[in-house]
């Protein structure tokens, strides 16, 4: 899984920040690894977002094989809280999307009742 970290001009991008983001995302999405090709993380700060929850915004977009990209956003008071919040939201969104795919495949398979009756 490729993880790209992007920041706006208000966030100081460091190797430590990149490593923290990658670790949080990998931990949250580890069980979906085979289904995800790329994850883009966008960090920004400022009142331009007009969020009442906090000034730090973390948007994460995951490219899940066979799906449209899944994106979530979290606003919080600190960078770490925003990253963790967005990672948790993305984990739930992917779990839900892959669960729907699994359910639709399960429901589309027609059971063969004739074989069951002969046994």
Radius of gyration, in Å, reads: 19 Å
| Basic shape | globular
Percent helix: 40-55%
Return the string of H and E elements: EHEEEHH
The helix-and-strand class reads alpha+beta
| Most strands sheet | 4 strands, mixed
Number of strands: 4
**Stretches with pLDDT under 50, minimum 5 residues:** 106-119
Distance between the termini: 46 Å
Mean pLDDT: 83
Number of helical runs? Answer: 3
Percent in strands: 25-35%
Strand order of the largest sheet: 1-2-3-4
Care to describe what's here?
Helix content is 43%, strand content 27%. It has a 4-stranded mixed beta sheet with strand order 1-2-3-4. The chain is globular, with a radius of gyration of 19 Å. The protein has helices spanning 15-29, 79-108, 113-118; strands spanning 2-7, 36-45, 56-64, 70-76. The protein is built from 3 helices and 4 strands; from the N terminus they run E-H-E-E-E-H-H. Helix 1 (15-29) runs parallel beside helix 2. The model is unreliable at 106-119 (pLDDT under 50). It is of the alpha+beta class and 119 residues long. Helix 1 links the parallel strand 1 and strand 2 (36-45).
